[in-house]
């Protein structure tokens, strides 16, 4: 097994060796699939980047590479922790389940694990400044959850000390396999759910996380409720008399990230009875554009949804001061800007796996004439 020999303090070398020894049973295992043992495929209804097959003694989960869809990003071999490891296994990363001690890079997945009833399995987190859950905050404060720094440059020493059974992180294109973290011998679960091409496709990944945590039943119940409600709302949105053009977020630095035509947000806008001005871009993620390009393509947007993170609510005057192009949009001029302050609203924790809540909220803003069933959740309010 290759071990990182740079960037680690001398006192950590011995600890690293211990970690690798302890985690050997959870590391990658390579071999060839036996003929006739490919297993029974478990169909995903919406997720396009996830394939699950039940085999003799293990479950094979294949994550498709969303940037090169003819290739696989990862293959995971899930084996019950109390069962013997089969003699022959396909190539992939062996993960003994249920996981009981994981490092979570994103608050999105930290919140989901809590909802699944497996919060005790969270041993460490990154990007803790963005944690909104009172329970997760309390566990971070008293040390039950270790703060492992910023996800783009995590605390390697802390991770070695933590000895997690797996690391849950969101992959990015050409990310050189996570540098030093990828060399620790710890199974990395690549959470590519955000690259799905539909909101329900992303939400369906809860089934995979349920498998990892021994919460299959809870995960399926969560998705079933979300799916039913989302599709009911989508049918209602289809009856709307108008289809407003929808703009999202704003410029950050010199770039404005807009939703591609096959992105979860782009599809969600359409499911809410709106028009995504950037649907012509085929990406399943965001598309970085110059602000002037965004203005040219969406100057006549009817509705504008803006997320921000700050102590006080953003005002229209402040939005105008953020960038010269902002007051030039039709939605700004007509006062149809809706803001979501993520410092106080759990947008990122809740909406990825409960897109029905976001769909409902967006429909209420886009189609005030429709009687949209209320869940009691509000993410966006009209900016003053």
Q: Can you tell me about this structure?
A:
The chain has 384 residues and is of the alpha/beta class. It is built from 13 helices and 19 strands. It has a six-stranded mixed beta sheet with strand order 1-6-5-4-3-2. The chain has a five-stranded parallel beta sheet with strand order 9-8-7-12-13, with helices on both faces. A hairpin with a 7-residue loop joins strand 4 (58-64) and strand 5. Helix 6 (206-213) runs antiparallel to helix 7 and helix 7 runs parallel beside helix 13. The longest helix is centred in the middle third of the chain and has 22 residues, at 216-237. It is globular and about 65 Å long. The N and C termini lie far apart (58 Å). The model is unreliable at 1-37 (pLDDT under 50).
- Quote the beta fraction: 15-25%
What overall geometry do the principal axes of the alpha carbons give?
globular
Low-confidence stretches: 1-37
Strand numbers in spatial order across the main sheet: 1-6-5-4-3-2
Report helical residue fraction. Answer: 25-40%
Radius of gyration, in Å, reads: 22 Å
DSSP helical segment count: 13
* First-to-last CA distance: 58 Å
Mean pLDDT rating: 89
Biggest sheet character: 6 strands, mixed
Class computed from helices, strands and strand pairing: alpha/beta
In total, the number of strands is 19
